[in-house]
Amino acid sequence: MDSKAYIFYGPSGSGKGTQAKLLIKYLEEKRKKAVLYVETGQRFRDLLDSGTYTAKMVREVIDKGGLLPAFLPIWTWTDFFNEKFNGTEDLVLDGLCRRPIEAPVLDSALKFYKIEKPTVIILDVSSDSIISRLQERGRTDDTADYIKRRLDWYEQEVIPTIEFFRNSTDYTILDINGEQPIEKVHQEIVNKINL
Fold first, then answer.
1. Which of 47, 73, 147, 185 is 20 to 30 Å from 55 by CA-CA measure?
2. What is the per-residue DSSP string for 96-162?
3. Domains (ranges, CATH) in the chain?
């Protein structure tokens, strides 16, 4: 059974992490094979805790509200593939390849690993719902200004990245109504991936 890849997109607060974990459980049960979960946010947190010179530089950029150079997010998942992927697992990718410059790199990696017809799962959630969800979770960094900047960044950077995959016949694109309750979102994903 060939490896499959599922790439999650959606703004902060759209439920990507939750849906990725539900999909992993479903894939493990249905396909009876291991699933690797690549979540770049955790990889960055691990990097920041490493105490390396790179970690120090990353902290400086983040503290100033800057954008990290493209090589760092690319490194987080290419390093993961190199260390963990043995060619037999399915891949669930969450929070990676979020800038247009990164899309051809991910595309080349999936082709290198001979993963055919990866699935891009886009959780469609309105800006109003995102604002409400993020404010409800009560994290101190979820200020109105910060949420607005994240939504603007999603529109300016992530949407054009998604278009790279939309414009390629090599990918299956699933637009999912992320406004539904968690279980219904999961059910829509499962129905549409059609294993």
1. 147
2. ---SGGGHHHHHHHHHHTT--S-EEEEEE--HHHHHHHHHHHT-TT--HHHHHHHHHHIIIIIHHHH
3. 5-39+90-193 (3.40.50.300)
Q: How many residues does the chain have?
A: 195
Task: Place 10 in a pLDDT band, splitting at 50, 70 and 90.
Answer: very high
How many helices (H) does the chain have, and how many strands (E)?
A: 9, 5
User: pLDDT at position 136, please?
Assistant: 86
Burial of 87 (0-12, 13-18, 19+ CB in 10 A): exposed
Q: Give 135's pLDDT tier (boundaries 50, 70, 90).
A: confident
Distance CA 157, CA 67 (A): 12
DSSP state of 100: G
CB atoms within 10 A of CB 20: 22
CB distance 94 to 16 below 8 Å = yes
For residue 87, the one-letter residue type is G
Burial group, residue 141, by CB count within 10 angstroms (0-12, 13-18, 19+): exposed
